[in-house]
Amino acid sequence: IEIVGAPIFNERKILKGAVLVFYDITELKKLEIMRKDFVANVSHELKTPITSIKGFAETLLDGAMHDERANERFLKIIYEESNRLQLLIEDLLTLSRLEKDEFRLNVSEITIDEVLSDIMPLMKHQADKKHIHLTVSQEPGLMIKADVERLKQVFINILANAISYTPENGEVTLLVKETDDYIQLSVEDTGIGIPEDAIPRIFERFYRVDKARSRNTGGTGLGLAIVKHIIEVHNGTITVESELNKGTAFHVYFPKH
Ligand code: ADP
């Protein structure tokens, strides 16, 4: 609470009393703290790959480039870390566009089949690399009113996570169905699961259950924050069920009207 006060005097300049105004600044303070945390997080996330790129480039320039094996290994790290930076910057730009009022949804009516035919080849490829069995179960011909590019991003982010956080030979299932009021998309996996106390936090920017693991799988920690934003601007909702070492299910509900 912030208090602003002013004394009140009578005509003879004798103090009569005072006015005190109490401002409840809890929300403002919270926003301010969140903003500061975000800037600190972004800086840290950017610094890590840059430090690595710079360090390995320096080592190469200092002579390591004449050692063929070191040369290749260090260049590979530089390449991978640059990729990380690129993904991070793309995700940050997506988030900031979603947050700005200027963000407009480009809504059209399309079939789910069209969306899936665009994204499934890439997802299948990712799943195949880990021998994960990816299956799709959908009522054919379902229509949805949404911003297609954003909707694809929702599918991609949730499916990519399911594949990342499921060990080899696991299963990932995408289910699309229609109820009276919603188009429901569910992604279920047989992966590592999410601890109960972490579930409410996974949609926060940069929150990860296991930072090292997320980095190794190429995660930026922003994927679900983006997903949640997109779903909210479509007036939809997302829920999560998870059991450690058993698997996770994300359910997305898009209103039909
Ligand atoms: P990241 O880039 O780290 O994957 P996300 O925002 O997409 O970031 O997800 C946040 C965190 O939620 C992940 O780091 C991971 O700990 C957890 N998570 C998301 N999806 C799953 C899943 N299908 N199974 C287990 N954990 C998951």
UniProtKB/TrEMBL annotation:
Per the record, the GO terms for biological process are: cellular response to phosphate starvation; regulation of DNA-templated transcription
Q: What is its EC number?
A: 2.7.13.3
Q: What GO terms are given for molecular function?
A: ATP binding; phosphoprotein phosphatase activity; phosphorelay sensor kinase activity
Q: Which domain of life is it from?
A: Bacteria
Alphabetical UniProt keywords: ATP-binding, Cell membrane, Kinase, Membrane, Nucleotide-binding, Phosphoprotein, Transferase, Transmembrane, Transmembrane helix, Two-component regulatory system
Q: Does the keyword Lyase apply?
A: no
Q: Where is the protein found, in the record's own terms?
A: Cell membrane
Histidine kinase domain ranges (all copies): 41-257
Q: What is its main location?
A: membrane
- Is the Transmembrane keyword given for this protein? yes
Q: Which GO terms describe its cellular component?
A: plasma membrane
Group of enzyme by EC? transferase
Reaction(s) this enzyme catalyzes, per UniProt: ATP + protein L-histidine = ADP + protein N-phospho-L-histidine
Q: What is this protein called?
A: histidine kinase
State the organism's lineage: Bacteria, Bacillati, Bacillota, Bacilli, Bacillales
